Amino acid sequence: MKKKGLKIAIVFICMGMAGIFWQNRQTVSLNELALENVEALAQGESGLGNYLCLGDGVLDCDGNKVAEVYSGLSLRH
Amino acid sequence: MKYLLSIFFIGICCSFLWGIFGKERYERYDTFPEEKRIVSQEIPLSTDFRFPYRITIKEGFAILMDLHPESYYYHLFTYPEWQPVAAFGKRGEGPKELLSADGVQFISMDSIYTLDANRMLISRWAFSATTQSVERVEDISLDKELIRSLDFYRTEQQFLIPNYTGQCRYHEVSHTGKKLHDVGTIPTETYANQKNVALAQAWRTFADYHPKNRIYALVTQLGEVLEIYHLESGKRIVKYGPGGEPRFIETSGRGIPMGIKGFMDVRVTERYIYAIFDGLSWDERRKYQERGEIPPEGGHFLYQFDLKGNPVRKYVLDRNIHGLEIDEKNNRVIAVSVEGEHPIITFQL
User: Model confidence at A49, in pLDDT bands (50, 70, 90)?
Assistant: First the structure.
């Protein structure tokens, strides 16, 4: 009976942890372009932080309106 | 012991279920009951623009805002003749010049309001028939607590300004620029525990208000979320489209856009809400660049919602547009586009 209880406890703990993980999940994906540019960004070639504000466009970035914002992590814009 | 174990199991179960079902989930729309293709007509202009971005029309005049001008951000024309009258809002770093143009509201010929987010300044301008020029007559410095304001609407009572800190949705600000009240929250489902500047940047919105129905509508620049605040009743409606909520990652304290580029501009009329929508993902945009092509600039769709946020009609446009004005009486859209030779185009709905 004790063993059965323990097994159930483990199952529920796993489910609980899965729930918490699911709640907090945020996917950060890397792509080829990202990997190519991480080094450049890490060397401080960005604007005010670890990101780049590029071109003329509609995104607000460090006081400018730019076409793209690249991050050192995702390099998506 | 058995009793304690049972309580422990129940606790774990509750935590699991809360993780899945406990988060607030907003209403969705998937499709529009009607879809219609509409064709643009160009309005030839003698003035050159680098990035025509916003348009507003009132009392037989139109104002066009250039987001990246050589010299002036704003241009006044007669409407519907489109004869140039005056340019105003010189770009520059001088004391009387504008560092940026972040919006224009045309109330009357002596109440043209503009926003310079880099100076945190709303200015009132007036047209002088004598000199045929538009002069700055009042400057309103915005409360430093707002940090950065990227959009505004002046009502009879106050300014409505979207929030930039992530702590609320928008601010009510006095006509002298002082923050009065914080209203609402950012309706995120994914980042509910992250109420910061990065979240607010990702949820950057364009907004419009109609004084008759007292509806303040906001649309997101990323993702696909429409929010409607009924200022009369205080009721809020949130509608997620298929594009979902703005996606981002936080880097060096700022929100880096991911997912899709969403809405471009919004107009609230007496009966409907109109919003320009893009929908192209940043990944797709990058593929254009990799092929050596220029990605589309502007929204390819015009969405029409009723005042409760229900989809009414989806217009598929033959040109990408950034800003719009609705002539509800003549069932006409006047829009600005950066693509093509002529910046102003019209659509018959």
Answer: confident
The size of the A-B interface in CB pairs under 8 A is 104
How many Cβ atoms from other residues are within 10 Å of residue B317's Cβ?
22
- At residue B43, the 3 state secondary structure works out as strand
Domain locations along chain A: 2-71
| Shortest distance, CA A31 to any CA of chain B (angstroms) | 10
Average pLDDT (B21-39) is 90
Position B301: which residue type? F
Domains of chain B plus CATH, in order, are 27-71+142-348 (2.130.10)
CB distance from A33 to chain B under 8 Å? Answer: yes
Quick one: DSSP state of residue B281?
A: B
> Quick one: closest CA in B to A67, which residue?
B297
Q: ipTM score of the complex?
A: 0.86
CB of A19 within 8 Å of a chain B CB? The answer is: yes
Copy the structure tokens of residue A56: 């003329």
Closest-CA residue of chain B to A76: B258
Dump pLDDT digits (tens) for B175-208.
Answer: 999 999 999 999 999 998 889 999 999 999 999 9
